[in-house]
């Protein structure tokens, strides 16, 4: 059977979509190629959120065409995901060697289309149409695809976003919000747990809006909190996480859930974007800096050790030095464990791209560097405070950079590297932290008397 290689750009949603497409092809008898040079089908799952991500995928496809087309003309080349959705046929016009362009609501058709292209019954396929019910089609996992079983899995709970932040292309590439049902999601989670998964991350572009139209509020609990409760009941599941929430969705029901539900990990990735009320308004974010800071206070009151990370954009149109100072100031006040900082990137069809006072590239660079300094400084202090403490980690497997080490995560979502053995895989361990690196915790060896299996 032919082999397939999928390269993924962008967020965890894309990772999950790629996994589903791979599982679909494996179920039809395809093998997974270890490298693109050996594959009969090469698919790039793309990201559109910043221009850089699009350019990377296009550049990669150009290289693949140059390297494979002449030697192996039968290879099927495809783009899928967000850039495929937003650019469609245009991608084939630009790169005529591309055979397949598969949009974000069509992942479940991948195997059929690849089959038709390989068989030669069709020459080119572009499918970026909307499809009702596509939110429920992403469910295949390939936990057994690698030698070791995964202990941690991502489960897609909804697709799309209706928030229309003025800088963001996601509502256009992923469409409007569509949620799966609670029983459907719980069934998938149960299956994963039966296969050995101990940690589940609920995934969506704006998970706090989960079920907003479909699921009525019950006893003051939003659809999202009802879903977390239902997943929480699954026996054998140890940890629940979710990403990405929106600050406006942090109602008191969700904050109370952190205090009430022990499997819900004390960790939150809460995108701030800016610390200036004026910019937040221009961004159409729907909260103020004060509201954001209050949410953090409440979360810390519910779970004092909660790890909080964020996303911040610097150089949004019209952002003045004063606005930027407000962002720095809020970061010093809130003290994030880590933050992903992005230089604003104009996205076509988004309102912000047309706003006056676009910030010069050099200013975006300078603000990026200044904010990084503040975030790194606070991060270092926060990580160093772990030295000497014992933390519970779930062991995920060998570290990618150094196979002699194992890697796991704390409940607060901090990466821990330690020297262990094969049998630690998938275990919950209590490890004493001995030193820190850049946003990484390190623990000692087997001989450590504090090293206990939970
Ligand atoms: N809620 C979504 C957001 C997707 S984009 C999710 O996390 O799945 C991820 C981050 O990219 C955003 O939080 C924002 O900080 C950044 N981002 C989005 N559009 C951007 C743009 N046009 N320029 C720079 N950064 C952007
Ligand atoms: Fe994008 Fe804002 Fe939705 S950042 S994904 S439009 S919440």
Structure write-up:
33% of the residues lie in helices and 21% in strands. The radius of gyration is 22 Å and the shape is globular. It has helices at residues 12-27, 51-68, 82-87, 90-94, 110-119, 170-174, 182-194, 223-232, 252-260, 277-283, 289-302, 321-334, 361-384; strands at 3-8, 31-32, 41-46, 76-81, 100-102, 125-127, 152-156, 158-159, 178-179, 199-203, 239-243, 267-269, 307-314, 338-343, 390-398, 406-410, 415-418, 428-437, 440-443, 452-453. It is of the alpha/beta class and 454 residues long. Strands 2-1-3-4-5-6 form a six-stranded parallel beta sheet, sandwiched between helices. Strands 15-16-17-19-18 form a five-stranded mixed beta barrel. It has a three-stranded parallel beta sheet with strand order 7-10-11, with helices on both faces.
